[in-house]
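Usage

Read records sequentially. Each one opens with the input sequence:
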Amino acid sequence: MRVIGLDVSRSFAEVAYLENGLVQAGGRVTLLHPELEHFAQRLGPDDHVVLEATGNTAAIVAALKSHAGRVVVANPLKVRLIAEARIKTDKIDAAILAQLYASGFLPEVWTPDDATLALRRQVARRTQIVRQRTRLKNEIHAVLAAHLIAPCPASDLFGKKGRSWLADQPLPLDERIGVEQRLRTLDLLAHDAKQIEEMLARSALAQPQVARLMTITGINVMIALSLVAAIGDISRFSSPEKLVSYLGLNPSVYQSGLQPAKHGRISKRGRSHARGMLVEGAWAVAQTPGPLRAFFLRIKDRRGEQIAAVACARKLAVIAWHVLTRDENFVWERPALVAHKRRQLELQAGMPAKRGGHKGLGADYNLKAIRDQERAVAEQAEKVYQKLFSRWRQAKPKDAQPCFWPPKRNQDKVRGAP
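and closes with the structure output:
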C-alpha cells in the first residue's frame, strides 16, 4: 500500500508519498479539473489518498475516488492537536497526513453521499439568503430610527400596508433612494428564497426521515431538513450521546490528577448550522404546551432561559436520534398539527390544492375544537411531567451519606499530612 498525503490550499495541493516507511515529496498539483484528472490517472487500487476537510474537498474526492483504492478525509482540528509543529510548511503537512494515516492515528471525517451534499448546499444557500434579508431589513429600521420616525403601525413593515406607510415618511432624498434600493433587493431575494424552498419541499416529501422528525414538538420542515443534511445516515451514531457530540451540544470537560471533573459550556464543535436550528426549535418548544416545555421551564428556574434553550436543544437532538433509529413517530405528536404541517409542505412543493368535500386531517387543524383537544392532551402531559419531577426532586435516597472527593481515608495523604 502506498499512502499519498495532500495538503490542500485554494489553488493547488502539495503531494507527499509514503511507501515502505520512506516519505518522498511529490511536487504540486493544480486544483483544476484537467490537472487533477491527470494526477488521478496515475493512481492505482493500492493507493490511499489522505487530505484535510476544506471548502473544495468534495470536488477533489469526487475526482480521485474512482481511481484510488481509498480517499480519506481528515478532521483538521484534531490533526492540529495531534501533530502541531513549530516548523510548518505544505510539504511537512502533506507528509504528516500520510504518516498519521499509515500509523492508524488519523482522525477521519465521514464523507457524505451526493444527495446529502446537494441537500447541504441547498440548506446553506437558503440560510445565506435569510441572513441577507435580515441585514437589509435591519438597515431600513436603522434609517427610520436615525430620523426619529415612529414605529410602523402595521404588523409587517415590508408588507403591502407597511410599504405604503413607508413611502409617506419624510426622509431625505438620499435616504429615500437607499430604502428603495434595499426594498428591490429584498424582493429579488424573496423570489430566490421561494425557488430554493420549493426545491427543499420536494426533497423533504421524498425523505421519510423528515416526516418522522416533523412529529417532534418544535421541529418544522426547515429544522428537519437541516438535521437530515447534517446527520446523513443515522446508523453511524451508535448512541444519542454521539449525535449530541457531533452537533457540538455536549459540555466541555476538564479533569487532571485527583481533581474532580469540571464541566463548562458546550463544545460548539461540529455542524454549527444544525445546532443553531435546534436552538431555534427549543425556543419554539418553550411556547408550546407539552413535556418539553415543562423540561424547559424546569431548567429555566435553576439556570436561566439561555441555558434552558441549549439544554432543550440537546434534548431535541436525543429525541431525534431515537425517532430516526427506531423509525417511529414522536410519542407526544399532535396528529392534526403534523398533518397540517405536511399539507403546507405539499403546497409549498407546488402540489395542487384540494377544493370541495373533506380536505383531510391537515384541514381539520383549522377547527378550533380539534386544536383545543390536542392542546389539552399536551397540557395534561406537561402537568404529569411536572408532578413526576416534583416527586423525584423531593425524594431522598435511604441511608444517604455525604460524598467526599478524594475519599475520606485518603484525604490526609492527599493534603500532605504525615
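Summary fields computed downstream for this record:
- Confidence is low (pLDDT under 50) at residues 400-418.
- The two ends are 59 Å apart (CA to CA).
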